[in-house]
Design goal:
Blueprint lengths: L8 H8 L3 H4 L3 H9 L8 E5 L7 H6 L3 E6 L2 H13 L5 E5 L13 E7 L8 H11 E12 L6 H10 L18 H10 L7 E12 L3 H11 L1 H12 L3 H15 L6 E13 L1
Parallel strand pairs: 1-2, 1-4, 2-3, 4-5
Antiparallel strand pairs: 5-7, 6-7
Helix pairs in contact: 1-10, 7-10, 7-11, 9-10, 9-11, 10-11
Bound molecules: S-adenosylmethionine.
The site of S-adenosylmethionine (SAM) has 23 residues, from helix 1.
Length: 274
């Protein structure tokens, strides 16, 4: 289902840059996360908010039959190109919105994975309802959601960026609320899942980049939609240099590598049995 970029700010945000440039720093963590999922040959997997396939690709390499759905048409194209060059015929990317999966039938997947994906869709209760609807009874849902009020990289980028940006429109629900256990429980129980079928753990993704932290900041500035928007807002107030300096200080402080960049970031891993 194609959605219209002119009327959908969510789609416009993610098509604005090129998330592939950031995803390239997340491949190793994506692969290890998928290895922990017990993916078996023929398992029917939906990767929601898949980007260009950081988790969808390794799942297909383990033999799963994977449909990857993302709202950004450029990332769908990049994903299909990656699947083709990897020779994977069991992996297909298509455009769609996590809050309205009307092209997908009820009970069609054994496993729905959404790593920092569906959390960015508006209407979180609709997202939970749709994810549950397409998962077969007895199937599993695994979400990776960034944490609010967390000292590690992603929440800090968003916090710094927010200070340079206009307030969000009225009624906007922050994607970071998907990192609050109580909110996640409320969303999935409203979709009919018993509370005891929902569990939480803390996990870590590491951003690995061959250059120095300031060069990774430059990648975010040039290619990551939310950071691009923050720089545009900062430019309007002539404060781009301040934003740059704050982000460089953050990336430097969190870097654990002596010669390149390796920044671990904590997230909430949610597992739901339907
Ligand atoms: C931070 S990226 C993560 C991508 C991928 N899961 C990964 O780990 O590399 C967020 C992704 O969610 C997608 N996204 C945002 N809103 C969406 C929505 N409403 N429906 C489907 N995908 C969405 C974006 O296009 C983007 O690819």
């Amino acid at each position: 289902m194609a959605t219209d970029v002119t009327t959908n700010p969510n789609k416009a945000l993610w098509e604005k840059g090129d998330f592939t440039r950031i995803a390239e720093t997340m491949r190793e963590s994506g692969e290890s996360l998928v290895k922990s999922l017990g993916v078996t040959k023929g398992l029917k997997v939906l990767d929601l908010g898949s980007g260009d396939g950081t988790t969808a690709l390794p799942a297909a390499q383990l033999g799963a039959d994977v449909l990857a759905v993302d709202i950004a048409s450029n990332l769908v194209a990049a994903g299909n190109a990656r699947a083709e060059s990897a020779g994977l015929t069991n992996l297909r990317f298509q455009e769609g919105d996590a809050s309205d999966l009307r092209d997908l039938e009820d009970d069609s997947f054994d496993l729905v994975v959404s790593i920092f994906g569906a959390m960015f869709a508006p209407k979180p209760f609709d997202v939970a309802k749709e994810i549950v609807r397409v998962t077969r009874p007895g199937g599993r849902i695994v979400m990776g959601n960034w944490l609010p009020n967390d000292p590690t990289l992603v929440n800090q980028i968003l916090k710094i960026s927010a200070a340079y940006s206009p307030p969000p429109p009225e009624g906007f629900v922050s994607p970071m609320t998907w990192g609050i256990e109580g909110e996640v429980t409320e969303r999935f129980t409203a979709a009919g899942v018993p509370e005891e079928n929902i569990s939480f753990e803390r996990d870590t993704y590491t951003f690995n980049y061959a250059g120095r932290p300031s060069e990774l900041v430059a990648e975010f500035r040039a290619y990551y939609g939310p950071t691009m928007n923050a720089f545009e807002a900062a430019a309007a107030d002539d404060r781009e240099a301040d934003l740059q300096a704050e982000l460089e200080a953050l990336f430097d402080a969190q870097n654990t590598s002596g010669h390149a960049t390796a920044i671990p970031a904590t997230f909430l891993r949610v597992t739901v049995t339907v």
